[in-house]
Write a structure and sequence with these properties.
This protein folds into five domains: 137 residues, no CATH class; 70 residues, no CATH class; 101 residues, 2-Layer Sandwich (Nucleotidyltransferase, domain 5); 215 residues, no CATH class; 69 residues, no CATH class. Helix 16 runs antiparallel to helix 25, helix 19 packs across helix 22 and helix 22 packs across helix 24. It is an alpha+beta fold. The protein is built from 30 helices and 13 strands.
Length: 689
């Protein structure tokens, strides 16, 4: 045991700088060397002391090498385990500590000093004095700072940890022995190279998780499956995509089996963080632009809750127009007051100033556009610059609805189209028959489209399929002969349905082109009204006999190719003489005149005034003046300049001078919006003015 004692004594007498510089101290015991007191033998063992390890490991390992106490060569055996003593000391009958060379007795650790003397704040001298007592780990009610406090459970996790009641700090017992103060403010974050490497690997793996989530969100795919356990054949898109990526990504393959960062709560949290990041970027762009408009629309979701979707429209410093969707808001009330309060609250949450709101766009419902109680009127009270514009796409949709509502024959024939979709697409058998008939004819297989209830311009696609595959549809109904099929077949094989099919296809084709133009984000109000005027003029050009003859002849050709009986002449009814009949009774219309006057002209005379009347709502004086200022070479008169300056609270004199400078540089050019934008940027008018 003398060698062990010498090694321990040598360790505690080492120079402090040497202890700091060396990462480890090695103690080697003699292999199978008997103790001098005749005790057992020391097994071969190499002991390492790391500055981050518990010193008690070293003491216990050395003491476990032989039974009995660690004593000097001249010490006498005690009947009970005793302390390590000096060469002249006598052993005690009770356990003790390391004593000085002149010490004759030992004392238990608890009797050597009070708790305040063992406090870690006293430094290394006290730590070495109470080395066998181990770390100072008091059990008390720890003070709370910023809702955080020391936890006594850490004692069992970190055996080297000790707590100072005096300084309310945590200390490392080994560091206090080695370095003197044993103090560090970030003791709990000390990690070795392995921990740093693992942290870097976890971050890299988390990046791959985020990339996978971004892909699924971008594609609009569901994340989870019905069963996500290890034996499931399909664990959902998220886990299956990770498994696919792991085939050529070693990092994912290594961590996927541990299911790190794959819990649905983590998925939702990452999605929420991505949403916040995207929204922050959009709002920063909008704030830099300063002025913005809002577009709102409400709908009922699948859970029967009313949701209001919100879009903001703004222009960047290069005059590029952006329309960005920024979220849904659920509402329990659809009144103008409730929706306006919801919109104001939402803009406040997004930190968008109401005084910078220059436009608002909704549908034509009374709760939105009402002159006194609608959202537009209420919002103008707090945002005076917010001009209300009725959604052009919604206006066009209302015009097409008017045609169906006011012309009974159009409404009846659209009912036939709806029944045709339900009959063929509602049965897998009939749908397969329809597909096979098309393939046998060497045609591309098309499906009958459903009538869209919200976008009537999309009905053109439905009518187009019926026109292209009329023969195959008739054959399908004849093959799948059922009672409903016979009734529908009789309706299809009628001249009335066929001529309505040609007329409405032409009208919906024209309005569909207009609808696509109105959906461009960078279209101006003037450009939109120009497109509307072109469409109306085109519809007016159809209102003549030659155009009707074209539709009538096409309908007759389709009837002849399918052996459909042409329309019969309308039977002339003789009016009794007492009702004004007789030889002077007016002659009845023939079939062609009936379809020309009562059907064809009636449809056109319904849709043309509807488009003109409803789009006139958006002929706004202030917007027309703005476009006249920037797009036309004509100067605004004093009244027009005064109206603009009052509306936007700008200087009348400055506006008058800047207009003249702009028009002079314009040099009698007449430009559209895109040309004016390029002109303003090239001449830096957006900076100078």
């Amino acid at each position: 045991m003398s060698k062990t004692n010498n090694l321990l004594t040598k360790y505690f007498k080492r120079d402090k700088k040497k202890v700091i510089n060396e990462s480890t101290t090695e103690l080697t015991t003699a292999a199978d060397e008997p103790n001098e007191d005749g005790g057992g033998s020391c097994s071969p063992k190499r002991l390492k002391l790391d500055k981050n390890n518990d010193l008690s490991i070293l003491i216990c390992s050395a003491a476990a090498a032989a039974p009995g106490p660690l004593t000097s060569p001249t010490s006498t055996r005690s009947t009970t385990p005793g302390p390590i003593t000096s060469p002249t000391s006598t052993s005690s009958t009770t356990p003790g500590l390391l004593t000085s060379p002149t010490s004759t007795s030992s004392t238990t650790p608890t009797s050597l000093a009070s708790h305040s003397e063992r406090d870690p704040s006293h430094g290394s001298a006290v730590a070495k004095k109470f080395i066998f007592a181990g770390p100072y780990q008091p059990d008390l009610k720890f003070p709370t700072v910023d809702h955080r406090h020391f936890c006594r459970q850490w004692y069992s996790i970190y055996s080297w940890l000790e707590y100072s009641k005096i300084k309310d700090r945590a200390f490392c017992f080994i560091c206090r022995l080695s370095y003197g103060t044993g103090k560090t403010d970030d003791w709990f974050s000390l990690t070795d190279k392995q921990h740093a490497k693992q942290a870097a690997e976890n971050r890299a793996y988390l990046v791959e998780i985020i990339r996978t989530i971004v892909f699924l969100c971008k594609q609009g795919l569901a994340f989870r499956g019905h069963r996500e356990h290890g034996q499931s054949f399909n664990k959902g898109d998220f886990l299956e995509l990770l498994a696919l990526r792991s085939l050529d990504n070693p990092l994912i393959k290594k961590n996927l089996n541990t299911l790190k960062f794959t819990d649905h709560k983590i998925q939702n949290e990452i999605i929420e963080l991505l949403q916040q990041k995207i929204l922050t970027k959009i709002l920063n762009e909008c704030r830099r632009a300063k002025y913005y408009s809002v577009m709102n629309d409400e709908t009922t979701d699948i859970s029967c809750h009313e949701q209001v979707s919100s879009v903001i429209r703004y222009v960047d410093d290069k005059l590029n127009v952006f329309e960005k969707f920024v979220g849904f808001e659920r509402t329990a009330s659809m009144t103008g007051e409730a929706l306006c309060a919801l919109l104001i609250k939402w803009l406040s949450k997004l930190d968008l100033k109401l005084e910078n709101l220059v436009g608002q766009c909704y549908d034509g419902g009374s709760n939105m556009r009402g002159e006194y109680q609608g959202v537009s009127a209420r919002l103008r009270q707090v945002a005076s610059l917010g001009i209300y514009v009725h959604c052009n796409g919604h206006i066009l949709n209302l015009c097409l609805i008017d045609v169906s509502a006011r012309v009974p024959s159009v409404r009846n024939n659209f009912g036939v189209v709806s029944s045709l979709y339900n009959l063929i697409e509602g049965s897998a058998k009939r749908q397969q028959v329809f597909e096979n008939i098309q393939k046998e004819a060497g045609l591309q297989a098309l499906t009958v489209k459903q009538l869209c209830e919200t976008r009537w311009t999309c009905r053109f696609e439905c009518l187009k399929v019926i026109l292209l595959r009329f023969n195959e549809i008739v054959t399908t109904l004849e093959v799948t002969a059922i009672s409903d099929g016979f009734l529908l077949l009789n309706s299809l094989q009628s001249f009335d349905f066929i001529i309505h099919l040609f007329i409405m296809s032409e009208i919906y084709l024209l309005t569909n082109v207009l609808s696509k133009s109105l959906h461009y984000s960078n279209i101006s109000l003037t450009d939109a009204l120009v497109q509307v005027k072109i469409t109306v003029d085109t519809l007016k050009s159809l209102r003549n006999e030659p155009e009707f003859e074209r539709f009538y002849s096409e309908a007759m050709k389709l009837c002849d190719s399918n052996d459909i009986v042409p329309p019969k002449e309308i039977r002339k009814k003789k009016v009794p003489a007492r009702f004004g009949g007789g030889v002077d009774a007016p002659a009845a219309l023939n079939v062609k005149d009936h379809y020309r006057i009562n059907i064809y002209y009636t449809i056109l005379d319904t849709i043309i005034p509807a488009i003109n009347g409803k789009f006139d709502e958006n002929v706004l004086d202030i917007v027309i003046l703005m476009e006249k200022l920037f797009l036309n070479k004509e100067l605004l008169n004093d009244n027009e300049i005064q109206e603009l300056s009052q509306h936007y609270s700008i200087s009348y004199d400055d506006l008058k001078v800047e207009q003249r400078l702009y028009k002079t540089k314009m040099n009698d050019q007449k430009m559209n919006l895109s040309q004016a934008t390029k002109f303003i940027l090239e001449n830096n008018f957006h900076i100078a003015f």
